[in-house]
Amino acid sequence: MSVSIDQLRVAYRTLSGDVRAVDGVSLSIADGEIMGLAGESGCGKSTLGNSLVYMEGRMKHLGGSVVLDGRPLPITDDRAMRAHRLRDVSLIPQYAMSALNPTRKIGKGTAELLKSKGVHYASVVDEFKRRLELVGLPDSVLGMYPFELSGGMRQRATMVISTLLNPSLLIADEVTSALDVSTQRAVGEMLMEFRDRRFVKSMVVITHDLSILAQVADSISIMYAGKLAEKAPAATVVDEPLHPYTQMLLGSLPEVGLRYDQAPLKGIPGRPPSLLHPPAGCRFRARCPFSFDKCSEEPPFLELRPGHQVACWKAMLEVGGPAQGTSATEGEPKVAMGPEGAGGEDGGQLAAKPASAGVQPVPQL
C-alpha cells in the first residue's frame, strides 16, 4: 500500500472558530493508482491534498495520521517535512501557471529549488531536458522567463519540475481548470504517462470535473462538506453511483447532442453546510431528495460492494449492509433492513443490529 490516511482532521483557524475542512477522512491509495478526488468548491478536497504536503500557518491539525510507503509522514512538523517534499511527496499547485518565480528563468529557478534539497542541478539537467521533450517542450525553455511561455507551456513545465525527483506520491490540484479542452486532454494523458513511466508511484488528481477523472483515474473519491461520501473504481462511480450526491453531480453534467432549451441542466438545490458549525448526521441530508429520519445520524463509511465504499443510509438500505467479508467500523453497529422490509411498519427506516447479528447478503454484481 503506497498511501494510507487514517481519520485525518484538518481545520482553518478563523476569528469565529475552527473551520473543519477535512473532518475524519480515511482512505488508501495503492501503488500505481491514480485516485481522482472530486466535489463542489469548498468541500475540502484541496485542503486534503495540501495537508499531505504543506500545512500552512492558518491550517490546524486536529487529528489523524498519514503513512507513506510504510513510514509515518510527519505532516504536522514543517521542518521534518522539508526532507520529504519533492522527494517522497510533491504537489502541482492549484494555480500552477503562477507557481513559477517570474524573476527567474526556468532553469535557474529549478536549480535553486534543487539546491535547497541537496541536489546538484548538473546531475539532473539531462533528465530535465528529456522530460521537457516528453511533454512537448524544447529545452530552450530553460533559458526563458515564465512570462515568455503560454499558460499550457507553464503548466507542463511545472508538472515536470514537480516530478523531477520521482516522488512516491503526487498531488495534482486542479491542473486542468484554466486550460482549454484540447490542452486539458493533453495534460490528462501526461499525468497517466508520468505514472506509466514511474516518474511517480501514486497520484491524487483533484478536480470538480468528473469528465476528466473518468478518463485518467483508476478510482474516484467523492467529498462533501469535509467528509468522504463515496469511493469506488472510476467506471463504477460513473456508471453505478450509490450516493445521491454523486448521482446528482453526474446529473448536472452537460451531455453532448442535447439542446438545453429542451432539456435544461439540473443543478443541486441548496448550498453546502457551514464547516464552522457543521450539522449533525448526514451532511448532505438538507439537500438530498431521499433523506429520511435515519439521516439525522451520521452514516459510517462502509464497503457495501467489493471495492465500493459509501457513507449513506439509503445506499445501505438498497444494498443490504456491508459487503461480505467486511465489517463495520469498530464501535459502529452493523446495518440491516427493518423487520418489515423497505415497505413495512418501520416506514423503510434502518434498524441497527449488534455486530453478532447477520446482515443481508450482497447481490452478485
- The best one-word shape is globular
Main pleated-sheet profile: 8 strands, mixed
CATH level 3 topology of the largest domain: Rossmann fold
Name the beta content range: 15-25%
Mean pLDDT: 86
User: Which ranges are low-confidence, i.e. pLDDT below 50, for 5 or more consecutive residues?
Assistant: 326-365
Number of separate structural domains:
2
Rg over CA atoms: 22 Å
| CATH class division of the largest domain | Alpha Beta
Distance between the termini: 26 Å
Secondary-structure-based class equals alpha/beta
Number of helices: 10
CATH architectural arrangement of the largest domain: 3-Layer(aba) Sandwich
Which homologous superfamily in CATH is the superfamily of the largest domain? P-loop containing nucleotide triphosphate hydrolases
List SSEs in N-to-C order: EEEHEEHEHHHEHEHEEHHEEHEE
What is the strand arrangement across the widest sheet? 6-7-8-3-9-10-12-11
Share of helix, binned: 25-40%
Tell me what the structure shows.
Residues 326-365 have low confidence and may be disordered. β1 (3-14) and β2 (17-29) form a beta hairpin. This protein is α/β, with parallel strands linked by helices. It has helices spanning 45-51, 78-81, 106-116, 121-134, 151-162, 181-196, 210-216, 234-239, 244-251, 313-319, and strands at residues 3-14, 17-29, 34-38, 59-68, 71-72, 89-92, 169-173, 202-206, 219-224, 227-233, 302-305, 308-310, 334-337, 350-353. The protein contains ten helices and 14 strands. An eight-stranded mixed β-sheet has the order 6-7-8-3-9-10-12-11, with helices on both faces. The protein folds into two domains: 3-237, Rossmann fold (3-Layer(aba) Sandwich), CATH 3.40.50; 281-365, no CATH class.
